[in-house]
Each structure stands twice: as C-alpha cells, then as structure tokens.
Amino acid sequence: MVRRTGVDKWMFCVTLVLVLVGLAMVFSASAVVAHEKAQSEFVDVGRQAGWALAGVMAMLGLMCVDYSFYKSPRVIFSVLGVVTLLLVAVFFFPGSHNTHRWIRFGSRFTFQPSEMAKPVLVLFLAWFLQSRLGKMRDWKHTLLGAAVVPVVFMLLVVKQPDLGTALVLGGVTALMVFLAGIDKKWIIGAFLLASPELIWLLMKPWRMKRLLVFLHPESDPLGDGFHIYQSLVAVGAGGLTGRGYMEGIQKLFFLPEATTDFIYANIAEELGFLGAISILLLFMIFGWRGLRTAFRSQDPFARLVAFGITATIVLQAFFNISVVLSLVPTKGLPLPLISSGGTSLFTTLASIGILLSISRQTE
C-alpha cells in the first residue's frame, strides 16, 4: 500500500548545501579573472546564481508532481524527440574549442543538450523496462529495444565530441538494465562488442596525449600535462585545512577551468583535505538517500527512475573528482551542483525534483 510522506529532508538539504557551496566556490574561482576581463567580479557567479534560482524553482515544482505523470508514452516520446533534435541541432551552431556541444542564442544564453540527455535517458529506460522485468532474456524484443536510444544518444554525443558524457550515459544504462535483472553476461558481451570502437576513439591523437599524460603527468608539466599537473599542485597545496576561502593561488591564471572541470581542485586548495572530504561525504549522503528512495519503492518505474537519477549524479561526481586527483584520464565533466554551467545545474536540480517526488511515496 502506498503511503504518502514528506520529501526526503536529508536529500533536499544536502542538495541545497551543495548548490550554495558551488556558488561560493564559483565566486572564489572566478572573481579575479572576471574582474580582469569584464571589470566585474560578479559576472560568472551572477550567471550561475540565476541558473541556480531557476533550477531550485524547477526542483520545487517537480517534486510536487506525481512521478506517475512520466509513465505516459506521450511524455516519454515527446521528450525523446525534443532531446534528439537538440543533439542534432548543435552541429548547426558555431563550435567552441573544436567541439559542438552548445546551442547559442546571442552571446549570453547557451545551453548544452547532452546534459538534458541524461535524465531523459533515465526516464525512457525506466518506462521501457518496467513492463519487461520478466523478459530480460528476450534479447530481440527487450535488450535490443532498450539499447536503441542509449546508442543513438551516445553516438551523437561522441560526435560532438564528448566522450566523458557518452561514458556516463553508457554507465548509467548498464547499471539500470542490471537492476532490471539482466544477466551480467549480456553486459560483459555489450562491453566487449563496444571495446573496438572505444579503443578506436581513444586512439585519437588528443586522447592518446591525455592517456600518456595521465600515466606520467610530470613528463610535460608545461604542455599536455599542464591541466592535471596544476590540479595536483592545487590539491597538494591545500594541506589539512587549506589556504583559506578566496586565498587560493592556482586559480590565478594557473589552474585551467577552475570554475568547471577542476573546481574540486580549488576546493581542496582553499578548504584543504577537510573541505574536500566534506564535499565527498555530501555526495555519499546524497547517494545513500537516493538509493534508499529507489529500493523502498515497489513500483518498478519509480525504482528505476530513482536509481537512474542517483547513479547519474553520483557517477559523474566520481568521474570529476577522480580526474582532479589523477585517478582517471582527463575528461570534460562538471562536478554536479557545484561546477559553473547553467544547463548542468538546472537539469540536475530538475532531476532531483523528480527524485524528491518519488521519495514522497513509500510502500
């Protein structure tokens, strides 16, 4: 019997704390450079605050919408169509840094469709798998059907190119079909089937440089290894308690992407090991509450959606932090809820709104 309760207060509070920490650290990492470029230290954090406000409003609105609304094929195929069109549309807009990841309207408003693909993929897989939990051995009607949308999304994202986001999409897909009851041999088989394509992608010259730098970051500290070398310097300089908020040095024209991909390095430098581990603990609490919400629900759709949203956010956080600590090769993935990036922040908060809606109903 479904019992309605309040939203998960732990998850709600942790989310707000991460957003507030993100705004504080975006300001810290961007203030000096923004003042040099635009004569105002509030340019970047002001933009991020606007997206944060919109995202929190979306979260508050969506957590009041019954999750069963998303079970409708009309909803699922509508959002699938929109996101697919947007993923194609990016190639018709001017690129940036040799990539086509953003749709731009003027110089101020941009958004990244690949961020929207993550929650939409979760909703599709949950809807598709919910009625086929007893047919996971039927590879023709279940496995192939479940693979079509993830493969299309991943191919379009890889073409941008954005291998990091494509790997997140693939990882979330594997975790969701595993939760649905697929035999692990099929997941292993899919990985082996995709391995030649993955190896071919990794053989691209710029990715090979990243792999070599990952193995030996000290070999070219002023060239290909600059990003990760400066990140490790920032992390090491923080010590136990850090240099102090706003007192970081690496962000001053040394640490690349200090507000986005490597913001965790700035956190470690300014707030030290204690600050960095606190962020990690917040994500662990979020993951715990998200999985708790998933496994307390007896509705297959709700369970899969909650699990998929939680896995997406935690997996991306794991990848980002691992890159900063040089545990995996460099990938252009933001730290959810903290890194600068309007589309990422908004879609993550909107996704959490759906997750909080599910947490309102227990079995």
What's the layout of helices and strands?
Layout: E1 3-4, H1 9-38, H2 43-62, H3 73-89, E2 103-105, E3 109-111, H4 113-130, H5 139-159, H6 163-179, H7 184-202, H8 205-215, H9 226-238, H10 263-296, H11 300-324, H12 342-359, E4 361-362
Antiparallel strand pairs: 1-4, 2-3
Helix pairs in contact: 1-2, 1-10, 1-12, 2-12, 3-4, 4-5, 4-6, 4-11, 4-12, 5-6, 6-11, 9-10, 10-11, 11-12
Overall mean pLDDT stands at 86
**Ends: how far apart?**
6 Å
Strand order of the largest sheet: 1-4
Radius of gyration: 20 Å
What is the number of helices? Answer: 12
Strand tally: 4
Shape: globular
Low-confidence stretches: none
- Topology pattern, helix = H, strand = E: EHHHEEHHHHHHHHHE
Describe the sheet with the most strands: 2 strands, antiparallel
Helix amount: 55-70%
Strand content is under 5%
Derived from helix and strand composition plus strand pairing, the structural class reads mainly alpha
Total domains, how many?
1
What's the quick description here?
The chain is mainly α and 363 residues long. The protein contains twelve helices and four strands; from the N terminus they run βαααββαααααααααβ.
